[in-house]
Amino acid sequence: VHYDGYLYPSGDEFDSSRKRHSPFTFNLSKGEVIKAWDIGIATIRRGEKASLLCAPDYAYGESGSPPSIPKNATLRFEIEGLNIEPPHQTIAERIESATKSKEEGNALFKEKKFEEAIDSYRQGIKTLDYRWGATPIEEKNIETLRVILNSNAAMCSLKTNNLNAAVKFCNTAIELDPFNTKALYRLSEAYIGLSNFDKATEVINKCLEVIIYNDFLFSK
Question: How many other CB atoms are found less than 10 A from the CB of residue 35?
Fold first, then answer.
C-alpha cells in the first residue's frame, strides 16, 4: 500500500510512503501493523483509496510511537491499495480456528491457567479480525464467537485482577451484543473492583432490565 499518516485533528503529517517513493508491504492479520490497519485494509481492494480514522486503542495506545506519535493519539491515514491479497485462510477456516482457540481457552480456564486462557481467547479474537467476503451466516457466526471470546477473556481478567482489561473485554462484547447478561454482569464486577460504584450500579441496572425483559418474552 501507499499511505500518508496524520495526527488527528491537527492534521500534522508524521509519515508518508509516497514521499519516500516506497510502498509499504506487510502481512494482514499477523500483528505486523496497528490493529486499525489489520481491520481496515482488509476491506480495501486493489486500486481503491480509503481514509482510516484510528482511535488510540486501535493505533499506538498509551505508549505512542515517539518521537512523531504522542501517547493516546488519534490518527488518520490516507491509503491506496496497490496489491492487496487476502490471507490464505478462508472465512470458514478462520471461524474453525477461532472456535478451536475458544475451546483451548475454556480448557485452560478449567485448569485455572487464566493467563494462558486469555492468550488463547486473544488469538481467537485476532483470527476473526479479517472477515472480508463473509456470507451473512458467517458474519453472524463471527459476531457470536467474538462476543463469547471477549466475555470469556473478561472472566479470566477478573480472576487475575486485571480489572481494566476486564472492562475493555466486556465493553467490546457489549458493543456487539448489548443484551449479553454475562458480559454486563462481569463488567459490573470489574467496576466494583475498581471502586467505580456509580458505573457498577448503572451496569447492574441495565443487566436487571435485560433479565426482566427476557423473562417477559419467555412468559409469552
Answer: 16
> Per CATH, which fold does 2-81 belong to?
Chitinase A; domain 3 (3.10.50)
Q: According to the 3-state scheme, what is the secondary structure of 131-160?
A: CCCCCHHHHHHHHHHHHHHHHHHHHHHHHC
Asked if residue 118 has pLDDT above 90, the reply is yes
pLDDT score at 86: 61
Q: Which three cell numbers stand for residue 16?
A: 508518508
60 noted as active-site residue: yes
pLDDT category of residue 220 using cuts at 50, 70 and 90: very low
Domain 91-218 sits in which CATH superfamily?
Tetratricopeptide repeat domain (1.25.40.10)
Q: How far apart are CA 81 and CA 48, in angstroms?
A: 5
Q: Where are the domains of the chain?
A: 2-81, 91-218
- Which one has a higher pLDDT value, 211 or 113? 113
Query: Annotated catalytic, 34?
Result: yes
Per-residue pLDDT, 27: 84
Alpha-carbon torsion (169, 152, 186, 183), positive or negative: positive
Active site residue 198: no
Which one is predicted more confidently, 86 or 78? 78
pTM surpassing 0.70?
A: no
Catalytic residue among 39, 41, 58, 60: 60
Catalytic residue among 6, 58, 69, 77: 77
To the query of whether residue 91 is one of the catalytic residues in this protein, the response is no
